[in-house]
Amino acid sequence: MASLLLPTILAPGKAQPPLVILQSTPHASAIPILRRVIRPEQGKGTVKAKRKTVVFCLFYPPSALLDYNGGDDDVELHDLLCNVPSFGDFKDPRDAINTALQDPQPTTLVIDSLDSLQSDIGSISATSSFLTELCKRSIRTDGDHTIVLHTTSSSTSPLLSSLLHSSLSHAKNVAHIVAHSPALITHVAAEYGTPPPPLGHEDRFWGVWMPVSARQATIDLTVNADADLAADDTVVDILTRGAASRRKAIERRLEGWADGTPCEVTALRSLRRIFSEKKRVIEETSTSGIPPDMNVSFNLSLSEAQQRARAQVPLPYAHEGQPLPPTAGAILYDPDSADDIDDDDPDEDLDI
């Protein structure tokens, strides 16, 4: 099984793409993943790199993103919740954001959220142009700067679509991470009979998953929600392009997030029943010979006695499996009583 892709994307450094977009959905939040970006996990024996993180809070309060005690010089917080257009002393957030990227020190710039920034700027095109220019500056730093954007809008948002358009230079090296509820996996497996990889076929799953996840706001996931649904379990849909993808130009992966750390989607407690039941069906299929997708109400398997009886049925051929001796070719014709063969008038039977 391939190694997890999410830790590589979240870890600061040269391997991290210059643009990371975290998207929350109606049934799952990407805030726990955003907290990991702000506070990267330090492994044992690793030396903490001198890197600054600048966080602009336009939607969630700073307390929702990290426990800030004011003594950490590596995190710079900008609380802009009260900075509202046409209300009080409003200041354009673009000025402070531009200033943050002018520091030569390696910087991770976090903006929460895209929707609030667009509301403050007042225009989708102006917001898209501003963020595109930021991404270009981040690319020119050769990995020293990373821009992390959090959004709560849908994947069909015009602003999000413009940032992910493949024709833009920054979109050639980007990671788009979408948080989903495990109940959506349960819904797809129950309603469409399509479990996620590695149990289900990868192409078939993505063909069902992408349109269903795009309209998940209209789906009542409580119908198929498991009573044992873990509160901290999140299914993470990862789309990477360019250097962020390790194997090909575009890579799509489904991973999990539980207890504040990345994991395989098969390790999520909320999906344990789906994978265990599907594994049992596959094991039964290997012995019965019935395809796993043949979900029928009657028995298709044969007992040992039935298999022996079937093997004893003679084949419906004259030679009974033995090769026929070679013979010369011949045409045998038995004239019919209605035949009217007249060489003088061959079309007589046509009644012309």
Summarize this structure briefly.
It comes from Schizophyllum amplum. With 352 residues, the protein is α/β, with parallel strands linked by helices.
Would you mind describing this structure in some detail?
The protein is an alpha/beta fold and 352 residues long. The protein has a single domain, classed as Rossmann fold, CATH 3.40.50. Helices cover 30% and strands 16% of the residues. It contains 11 helices and 9 strands. It has helices spanning 6-10, 31-38, 62-65, 93-100, 114-121, 124-140, 158-163, 182-192, 202-214, 272-288, 304-311; strands spanning 19-23, 52-57, 75-79, 107-112, 145-151, 174-180, 234-241, 250-258, 261-264. Strands 3-2-4-5-1-6-7-8-9 form a 9-stranded mixed sheet, sandwiched between helices. Strand 7 and strand 8 form a beta hairpin. Helix 8 (182-192) crosses helix 9 (202-214). It is elongated, with a radius of gyration of 32 Å. The termini are far apart. 29% of the residues are buried. The model has no long low-confidence stretch (mean pLDDT 79).
